[in-house]
Amino acid sequence: MSDAIAIVQGEACFDLPKDLYIPPDALEVFLETFTGPLDLLLYLIRRQNLDILDIPVMRITEQYMQYIRTMQDMRFELAAEYLLMAATLAEIKSRMLLPVSASAEEEEENLDPRAELIRRLQQYERFKQAAEDLDELPCLHRDIHPVKIDAPFKSIATVLPDINLDELLLALQDVLKRADMFSHHQVVSEPLSIRERMSWILAQMETGSPSAFIELFDPMEGRQGIVVTFMALLELVKQQLIELVQTDIFADIHIKSRA
């Protein structure tokens, strides 16, 4: 079974059919593609772990020409820059066979014909590495896909709880506890009027913004002042001049005008 050249309908075939015709272009070999002659040279140098600062021009030129011949045998069209690089390598190879001039005034390129080629290879290597590093970064619509979800519209109606007398008494008890913290000697007792306190409360409501229940009480007035203020509030609620508002259960009580 190991000598079979193919398996047709479950049966092994050991010989080619006599009437089999294989066109010349039936088999195509795809070699590694390069973006330019510098890319090809850099590949040849890396494959053999050569030092880019000390390129063996003869060996690299032979491998480069072998690649050119392979591409021509495969009938691939070569760009003019590949042929230009082949001519450049041949020129460098011939110049290295010439004796080196001993004149100190010669430029470095004349002393080493490979200098310009090495400079171009180093520059190309830096840009190629930078391009590879950028390609490894996450790319939008390739590695990262944005997701946008519109939240459904939902109308929420806030139902304010009703305020009963028990909650008012609890709030009054809290104010009385605060008043006990400010104990002082009261020499002269000024009479407090519920009507005057009602007018004062209505004056506080003229701004239109609700006032906190606790802010209407002054602990410095003592229990008598707190009780008078509380009675004035109850009278204003009874006469429907103000209303009590609470945003949530056990939340702070606010007072606002009904006007």
Give the overall pLDDT as a whole number.
Answer: 77
Major beta sheet summary:
3 strands, antiparallel
Tell me the series of helices and strands, N- to C-terminal.
Answer: EEHHHHHHHEHEE
Q: Count helical runs.
A: 8
Strand order of the largest sheet: 3-5-4
Give the helix/strand class. mainly alpha
SS strand fraction:
5-15%
Separation of termini? 104 Å
Which term fits the overall shape? elongated
In quaternary terms, these chains amount to single chain
Number of strands: 5
Poorly predicted runs are 27-31
Helix content: 40-55%
Kindly provide the radius of gyration, computed on alpha-carbon positions and rounded to a whole number of angstroms.
49 Å
Features:
three-stranded antiparallel beta sheet; single chain; mainly alpha; 259 residues; 8 helices; two-stranded antiparallel ribbon
Layout of helices and strands:
Elements: E1 6-8, E2 11-13, H1 37-47, H2 57-73, H3 80-97, H4 108-111, H5 115-136, H6 165-180, H7 194-204, E3 211-212, H8 222-238, E4 242-246, E5 253-257
Helix pairs in contact: 1-5, 2-3, 6-8, 7-8
Q: Care to describe what's here?
A:
The protein is mainly α and 259 residues long. Helix content is 45%, strand content 7%. It is built from eight helices and five strands. A three-stranded antiparallel β-sheet has the order 3-5-4, covered by helices on one side. Helix 6 (165-180) packs antiparallel against helix 8 (222-238). It is elongated, with a radius of gyration of 49 Å. Mean pLDDT is 77; it is low at 27-31.
